[in-house]
Amino acid sequence: MLGPVILAASRSDKMRRFVSAAPGTKQVVDRFIAGETVDQVVPIVRDAADKGLEVTLDVVGEDITTVEQSYAARDAYLELVGRLKELGLGTRAEMSVKLSMFGQALEGGHELALANVRPVVEAAAAIGTTVTLDAEDHTTLDSMFAIHEELRKDFPETGCVIQAYLFRTEDDARRLAAAGSRVRIVKGAYKEPASVAYQDKAEVDKAFVRIVKILMAGEGYPMIGSHDPRLITISQELARQAGRKLDEYEFQMLYGIRSDEHVRLAAEGHRMRVYTAYGTDWYGYFMRRLAEKPANLLFFGRSILTKG
């Protein structure tokens, strides 16, 4: 039951200051955050490529409050695209973006986020890669899906994320499982009310399986975002039943979690993509990682005690 408490803390400035100042924080943050700058992330992309892995890169920092910050977020991604182009890594790395970082929650935010994300998607396409729009809390999804639909008119490979714990997601999956679509399915990592989301883990897992089945049976490209060995095995079986080849879907896992499994799946011929976050504004992302798995919180607690 600690998950909801941690998710609530992810929105607290007081907790942000406490966690940031804790002596063991950096050790744990470094496990989940690949670095603070593009130059620190580049070797990780190269190493992943050498191991037969692909990556999706996320510049962390969704809690913005000004239009100027939204422009800075846009420019950070454009810098990333430029570095990938210089190094010839465009085809090995895509990007994941949170529209809140591009100004979605500000006044006129829908139009602002679309205007900011479009040049990033365009630049990504120019170097042979693409962008996936991350899902956030349920109040933002209609805007996210509308922006996704608009971007796909010119950039059809633009992906989006759906979350198994939301009641609406099975219907969203049916709508999105069309030819050419790219859809990442995850369990969900935001604090959502019982009126819109399953609260029981077993129910979330069941929904995840139902949604994977919908996506595998569709004409799009499913991206399975999970570290759960059982759900990975079930997804492999659903892909087999749907007659999908190994290059017609992929698995995605977070940087710093089950790295041996990343390599194992790639060695078996699966497309395996590592979700790799970097940047200085890591707090919200970090807290969601703690909330997802008790072992992550235990690791953090031990680090604080060790360093304290």
TrEMBL record:
Residues reported in the UniProt entry to bind FAD: Q163, K187, G188, A189, K201, S226, H227
BP term (GO), one: L-proline catabolic process to L-glutamate
Cofactor note: Binds 1 FAD per subunit.
InterPro entries noted in UniProt: FAD-linked_oxidoreductase-like, PRODH_bac_arc, Proline_DH_dom, Proline_oxidase
Binding site for substrate: K98, R288, R289
Annotated ranges, domain Proline dehydrogenase: 46-298
Enzyme type, top EC level: oxidoreductase
Pathway annotation: Amino-acid degradation; L-proline degradation into L-glutamate; L-glutamate from L-proline: step 1/2
Pfam families: Pro_dh
EC number, UniProt record: 1.5.5.2
Keywords: FAD, Flavoprotein, Nucleotide-binding, Oxidoreductase, Proline metabolism
Cofactor(s) needed: FAD
Catalytically driven reaction(s): L-proline + a quinone = (S)-1-pyrroline-5-carboxylate + a quinol + H(+)
Molecular function in Gene Ontology: nucleotide binding; proline dehydrogenase activity
The UniProt record lists the keyword Ribonucleoprotein: no
Protein name: proline dehydrogenase
Organism whose genome encodes this protein: Streptomyces albireticuli
